[in-house]
Amino acid sequence: MSSIIQLLPDHVANQIAAGEVVQRPASVVKELLENAVDAKATDIKLIIKDAGKALVQVIDNGLGMSVTDARLCFERHATSKIRKAEDLFSLHTKGFRGEALASIAAIAHVDMKTKQDQEELGTQIIVEGSKFVSQEVAVLPKGTSFAVKNLFFNIPARRNFLKSDTVEYRHIIDEFQRVALAHPNIYFTFFHNGSEMFNLPPSSMRQRIVNVFSGKTNEKLVPVQEETEIVTIQGFVSKPEFAKKSRGEQFFFVNDRFIKSGYLHHAIMAAYDGILRDGAQPSYFLYLTVPPNTIDINIHPTKTEIKFDDEHAMYAILRASIKHSLGQFNVAPVLDFDRDSNLDTPYSYKNLEGATPTIQVDGSFNPFSDDKINKHYSGSNYKKPEPTSSWESLYVGLKQEGEFISGSSDFSFESEEVTGSLFNEEEVEQTVNNAYQIHKKYIVSPIKSGMVIVDQQRAHQRVLYEQFLTNMTVNQASSQQLLFPLDLFFSATEMELIQDLKLSLVNTGFVFEETTTDHVVISGIPVNVTESEVSLVLEQLLSDLQDGIPDSSFSQNDTIAKSMAKSLAVKTGTALTVKEQENLVNGLFACKDPNVSPFQKPTFITMRVEDLDKKFAL
Ligand code: ADP
Ligand code: MG
């Protein structure tokens, strides 16, 4: 029987290996930047075109390569960084596998220029899909330039797999930021399609963070400093009141290498225990220095995970030092995070001494004689309610029996006298209820067949969502002009998203006076947004877009409408006036799809009189 096993030719093996090293343009950015850092460059330029799909170029002023090395660097397992396996445990470089350049050259067009300081002339090599196309002697400055063009030109399937430019560009920014933050002493510049996106002169760690994430970052940071036998920790964490909804700005560096660690992240969250609002994420930029022989960075092919010898000690030290910093800078006991003044009053009312809520009841009132609440009940389930005396007496009975109101902790009604004055003076006189709010969460309202119980938050989300969507699709959102335009700062990544969404945002009623790489000036806002809510709305939106901007304008509008509805909807825990309750219920049933929130959760349930009868029959 004939034998069938063959060794794969190098270019095939390289292409296969490339699958692991190069997933997307951002992987090329990472490898080239790290090589430049390893070559001791002090000035590194990153130039990309079309989110790296057309070009990724890194120019450094580092050590450069000899003619022989220039040729050898494209071979697989060709590295100057380790000689033997033990070297892995005294590693001071980013690279060590010697497979990045071989992999990249297997799946792209590479134009490399390199010159060592002491040489007169340098070398230029062009490789396309692992084939050496040319090698020439050239007059060059000191250092190395790698231009990687047409990524995946010979693997169309991989090329087709790439995401939109926005998504790929964000991955590149992520990689760039990681390297730039790890090396504040190196001058980094970054150009995308000819515009300068980052210009980061050598600076302190804190200044570098601020330069990467815009000026407003500075006031957020609290320094962390701890030196122990097994680790030195330096860096910054954010004050709890600046915690964000997204996990964007969280960075661990171990020996100047960006790493991910769920375990250490947990240590940080533990340090913030009790001082963050639900789901909020602190920013952190932490630089850990450990003896190289106490970590194993070899457990993950893309090298963002590492293993520590003594993880438990690391956890404890990290948590303690962050707790200490937060305490020292007096930022720990901050309890009120995002109180909106609009929402404040009902809570403070709660603390008022001895003021037992009183309810004014119009005993002669028949809730079913007033049909204004019914005119929007257009859903098929809803018919115009008809008088049902048992309902009337049930309501009235409840209201008259004081113990239900003040005595029962799990069944309390807000008096309209109080809530009315909180929100709207005109409501004070209103004594007629077609809707009741219970537990500041649900609104109960009678309907012909029984009653409907509406979840106020979800219902309001639905109402706002449809409003925004209508405004956006008919392009006639009304906008309120601001007397003093708002100047809001965002990181480069966030600004990029805002730019991409600008048109859709304008359709909701935003007016942008100016957008630069790190801030926007907003001179008009949608009518249903207040000035103090603007940054909340935008921040929520950016956090909702973590996974990329939808390609079609329809789904962009949808995402924006959902996100704004989520930010602006009245929350569980907010007391509503009767008028507000009625408006909400009416608004909900005027919606095209009143049954579910924009996030597909039920907005209301109904309970028929028969259901109640059954319960009472027991
Ligand atoms: P690794 O970084 O794991 O060693 P690479 O394939 O990334 O493997 O690079 C191979 C070798 O090419 C490196 O070990 C280094 O000697 C050389 N090299 C790569 N990029 C540069 C650069 N920008 N300047 C100088 N030498 C470089
Ligand atoms: Mg490398």
TrEMBL record:
Keywords: DNA damage, DNA repair
Secreted keyword on record: no
GO CC terms, sorted: mismatch repair complex
Any one GO molecular-function label of the UniProt entry: mismatched DNA binding
Domain of life: Bacteria
Start and end residues of each MutL C-terminal dimerisation domain: 434-576
One GO BP: mismatch repair
UniProt key word DNA damage: yes
Domain DNA mismatch repair protein S5: 209-327
InterPro entries: DNA_mismatch_repair_CS, DNA_mismatch_repair_MutL, DNA_mismatch_S5_2-like, HATPase_C_sf, MutL/Mlh/PMS, MutL/Mlh/Pms-like, MutL_C, MutL_C_dimsub
Family per similarity comment: Belongs to the DNA mismatch repair MutL/HexB family.
Biological function: This protein is involved in the repair of mismatches in DNA. It is required for dam-dependent methyl-directed DNA mismatch repair. May act as a 'molecular matchmaker', a protein that promotes the formation of a stable complex between two or more DNA-binding proteins in an ATP-dependent manner without itself being part of a final effector complex.
NCBIfam families: mutl (TIGR00585)
HAMAP family per UniProt: DNA_mis_repair
Protein name (Swiss-Prot/TrEMBL): DNA mismatch repair protein MutL
